Amino acid sequence: MEIHQQCVVALTWTLEDTLGEELDVLEEPVEFFIGGTDLLQVIDAALQKGRAGDVFDLRIEPEQGFGELDEKLIFIVSSKLFPDDLEVGTMIDGTSLPDGCLPDANMAAFYTVSEIYPSHVVLDGNHPLAGIALHLRLKVWTVREATSAEALHRTVGTGFFKFEQAQAHAAGNFTLH
Fold first, then answer.
1. Same structural domain, 17 and 50
2. How far apart are the first and last CA of the chain?
3. How many CA atoms lie within 13 A of 47 on its CB side?
4. Which of 33, 48, 76, 133 has the greatest count of CB atoms below 10 A from its CB?
5. 148-167, pLDDT tens digit by residue?
């Protein structure tokens, strides 16, 4: 079956930065809805007319992926608001930020602790892959028609690079898929 809008594909992939550093590996096939909200548009477009067994090598520029780094999403906050055991790389759900930390912040976002100093902590609200050009090598395992519920919601419930909230608080331990 040929890949087309409103079908479901099972994919595996290896994601690297442009220097070849491995950022994420999806070893077991996971299903994604084509033409909806599950994948980046550049990936959706590249998969069109592909078939099960096809392998794709994509270069994804920041503007096609997770955007450029936005300086307005980097915040300097008093270190007194955080526990002493806070580590660089820790991801914090916006709803778990200390009271008064970022009163105007997007509480639906995640913030990464990017630097820690004696007087302050630097929180970055950008996606961890913002500003990075990526190389994505993916394989199509299966292609099937979407169910009526999947077509209605335009998703199979698996988004591309969504954070697993349960793991987001461990330093450097988060899943991108």
1. yes
2. 25
3. 32
4. 33
5. 999 999 999 865 544 433 33
